[in-house]
Every structure is written in C-alpha cells, then in structure tokens.
Specification:
Length: 388
C-alpha cells in the first residue's frame, strides 16, 4: 500500500467543523470527535498537485462546470457504474445538499409533499421543511438487523400532493446498498404515480467487499426520465471543504427547470479548486480509492470481532458502503442516558441517531475514516462504560 492511512494528521489548528464545533454540539471539547462525515486522511497526491497548480495561477474569478469537468464526470460514471451519461445531462453546483434543495424548489410548491425514508441523513428533512413543503415519512423496516424499504406503506402515503421522493443510495446512516430489484420496484412505483426521484448517490464510490453500485437512473429509460441524480467526489476523496458537486438529469424538461433555479440562485457557480480537484480525483484517484477501501474494510472486520467479543450488547450494522457505521444501543437503556454516557464517560462524540429521525433514537453513528488506532481507542472506552 502506498498510502499511509495510519499517519497522524493534526486537524485542530485548521478550521473544520469536526473539531471546531465540538463544544457547540457536544458541550465539551474533551471528546474524540467521530461524527461529521469527512475523513482525517490526506487526499491523493494528484488531487493536491492539481490544486497547487491552479493556485499558482493566482486569479480566482468565477468558474463553472465546463466541458472538461463534465467529461471527467461522464468518464467516471462509465468506469465506476457502466452508466452512459451524456455531458449535457450534467450540471455543476457547490454541494449535494444545495442540489437537493434546488430540486425541492424546482419541482414542488409550498405545502406539496415530499417522501423520505427515515432514519436518513438529516438535511433531507431540512431541505423540505425549510421551504414550506411537507415531509411524508415512509420509514425503513428493520428486519434482522438490516433495513428494508416498505413498498406497501409507500403506495399508501402517496397522494396527489406528493411531488417527489428523496432517496439515499447507498444509505446514510446504515451503509446499506439498495439492490437492483429494490430500486426497480421503487422506481416503478414512483413512475406509476408521477413522483420524481431525487437520488443522493454521494456515497456510491465507497462500495465495500467488491460490491457494485446501482445508479437508480440506469435501471430503465422510464426511471431515468423521472430521476435527478446528485453526486460529488467529496465523500470519496475527502474534498468536502472544496464545495463542488453535480447533478445528472436525462430529462430535458426537468433539467431546464433545475438549471433555471441554479441560474436564479447563482448556484451554478462552482469552486475553482473544487472543479480541479474533482477532475483530478476522477482521472487519477482510483488507486488511492482502492487502498482506502481496503483500509476501511480491515477496520470494519476488526470492529465486527470487537463487538462480538467485547460488547455484544451493542449491535453493529456492517456497512456495505461508506465509512459511517450505525450502532444499535437499544440494549443499553434510555437513549438520552446513553448519549450522556458516551460524551461524559466514554468521551466520544458520535452522531446521535435521533437526528436521522425518531426511528434512529436508539442508535449512534460512528465515523471510522480516521486512524484505526483512534477507532479502537474510542471503542475501548465505550466498552468500559457499557460493559458494567
Ligand atoms: C447522503 C449525503 N448527502 C449529502 C452529503 C453532503 O453533501 P455536500 O457536502 O456536497 O452538500 C452528505 C454528507 O455527509 C451525505 O452523507
């Protein structure tokens, strides 16, 4: 392996949410922050080289997602997912959350309904409610420690006010990868009821154990025509601070509306360094990504053993993609008391499951994209607190 993922990188001196907002979020700085979904790892060398090269030009006027950027996205989607994306389907913007918000604004009106499947990435709720649309929940079913979609309930909650469904594929917080048959069923129900699918596929490159991601828009032309795919290199290559993402929309009608909203909000302006970094990652980052996945897989394998042997009362949901692990503390008592113990006694800062919807109340999400030793130092402290 060329990359040393065990290298100590001190992020504290530099502005970042993970360390900088510990007090605001956990009430103390005396915790190991294993929450916000970014990585402690330095980026792949070609990415940094591209940024340094661009910085040398020293003029940072407004950039946009140009043909070169779009070509890198299309080539990447082909390489990763064998998905043939036409360059004109791609729009650039500063983030996937802004893309979700833009979709809600473009394709619904106040008091319309938008479906989410909780527990799910918390901004899904915010982008709907903050602009006066109504969240309709189709909660995931927990079956033998694995989430499944509830298609019967989904059909029941769709009304003539339902304009779209926000899909998280792969799923944050559980790391579940939806299968082709699940996505086909979801797509068919949505197509039948003219409900748009806003597919957040930001975790799609971090598939583990040799699994292959299934973009929902690739399933059929019919599903593609009702889908807005939102993605970015930011999770995969640790570029969140460079604010650069993109959407893929094959329907001309939807894309025109979406792009009009981007133009009104000026969100079509991307970030100079984000564009360069994304293209460099997509063109030269595959080797680094494979190494990262191996490192994460090994951490996850060791975590499974750790929980089985030392902390069986906490159930770990093994992620199929990504570096976020969903931990079930149901057997450890009152959720608020568990959270207090994690912060005050174990001194670890995890994302409390309730922020992903009430369905996540008994869970905590741990970010394992840090040095392995740090993960196990935190887990050992959790073990001490909860094995009593
Ligand atoms: C599912 C999902 N979507 C979007 C984002 C954030 O995307 P961005 O920073 O591009 O807005 C995250 C970050 O954790 C995420 O997990």
């Amino acid at each position: 392996m060329n990359t040393d993922f065990d290298k100590i990188v001190d992020r504290k001196p530099y502005n970042n949410v993970k360390f900088g907002l510990r007090k605001a979020y956990f009430g103390t700085e005396d915790i190991d922050p294993l929450w916000v979904a970014d990585m402690d790892f330095e980026v792949a060398e070609p990415i940094n080289n591209a940024i340094v090269k661009r910085a040398a030009h020293a003029v940072y006027g407004y950039p946009f997602a140009d043909d070169d950027f779009k070509a890198s996205v299309c080539d990447w989607q082909w390489k990763q997912n064998q998905w043939k994306v036409a360059p004109e389907w791609v729009s650039g913007l500063p983030g996937v959350v802004p893309a979700l918000l833009t979709a809600v604004l473009s394709f619904s009106a106040p008091s319309d309904e938008v479906i989410v499947q909780p527990p799910v990435y918390f901004p899904f709720f915010d982008v709907i409610e903050s602009v006066g649309r109504n969240v309709v929940k189709n909660p995931l079913i927990l079956n033998n420690g694995r989430y499944e979609m509830d298609f019967d309930h989904l059909q029941k909650v769709i009304t003539d006010k339902t304009k779209m469904l926000l899909l998280c594929n792969p799923h944050n917080p559980s790391g579940r990868m939806w299968t082709k048959s699940e996505l086909t069923k979801l797509g068919e129900i949505c197509a039948q009821h003219q409900v748009l699918i806003i597919a957040d596929e930001i975790h799609s490159d971090l598939t583990l154990g040799g699994r292959k991601h299934q973009p929902i828009a690739k399933i059929s032309p019919q599903i593609s025509e009702i889908t807005v795919t939102c993605s970015s290199a930011s999770k995969t290559f640790n570029l969140a601070g460079l604010t650069c993402a993109y959407t893929i929309i094959s329907s001309d009608t939807l894309r025109r509306k979406f792009d009009k909203m981007l133009s009104m909000t000026h969100l079509f302006i991307s970030n100079v360094f984000g564009l360069e970094a994304t293209s460099a990652a997509y063109r030269s980052g595959s080797g680094w990504l494979e190494e990262l996945k191996l490192y994460l897989e090994e951490t996850i394998a060791q975590m499974e053993v750790f929980f089985q042997e030392n902390l069986p009362q906490v159930k770990m949901m093994k992620p199929e993609a990504g570096y976020l692990v969903w931990l079930d503390f149901s057997a450890c008592g009152d959720p608020k008391a568990v959270r207090k113990k994690l912060i005050e006694e174990a001194r670890v800062g995890l994302n409390h499951g309730s922020s992903f919807g009430a369905e996540g109340e008994n869970f905590h999400r741990i970010n394992i994209a840090v040095r392995r030793a740090e993960v196990f130092s935190a887990l050992s402290r959790i073990q001490k607190v909860f094995s009593n």
